[in-house]
Specification:
alpha+beta, 6 strands, transmembrane, membrane, DUF4845 domain-containing protein, transmembrane helix
Length: about 130
């Protein structure tokens, strides 16, 4: 069996990059730019698609919280009206929104409505019929 020296066995292999004076491999300049460009495009895709979707979800979540709070306050005011107690006209909500409660008389009877300001200064209202 013939012994091959280590120097000779590795002599035919090509190495990626070049060696500097200290024996460490120095990466090719082109591969650094390609990696930089690839990482830039990955971040660009994240910023273009993920961030606006996250912002939309955050805004919708806030609207749902305000609508849920208005529904909870409406139920409380309907219970007060059904017991014959006066309803509270202005209620400051937990979210910082001001809710205005009114009792409306109509052909179908009395109903309690809660008005509040939604996104983009759009006024919303939810109503529920009162017994009796």
């Amino acid at each position: 069996m013939k012994m091959i020296s280590r120097k000779r066995a590795g002599a035919g292999r090509r190495r990626c990059g070049s060696r500097n004076g200290e024996g460490r491999r120095r990466p090719d300049a082109g591969s650094v730019y390609a990696e930089l460009l690839l990482s830039f495009f990955v971040w660009l895709v994240i910023v273009i698609y993920v961030v606006p979707a996250f912002m939309h979800i955050t805004v919708m979540r806030k609207e749902l919280l305000i609508r849920n709070e208005a529904s909870r306050l409406l139920n409380a005011q309907v219970l007060r009206a059904n017991k014959g107690l006066p309803v509270e006209e202005r209620i400051a909500g937990d979210s910082g929104t001001v809710f205005i409660t009114v009792i409306e008389e109509g052909p179908e009877g009395r109903r309690v409505c809660v008005k509040y300001e939604a996104r983009k200064e759009r006024e919303e209202r939810i109503c529920e019929k009162v017994r009796g």
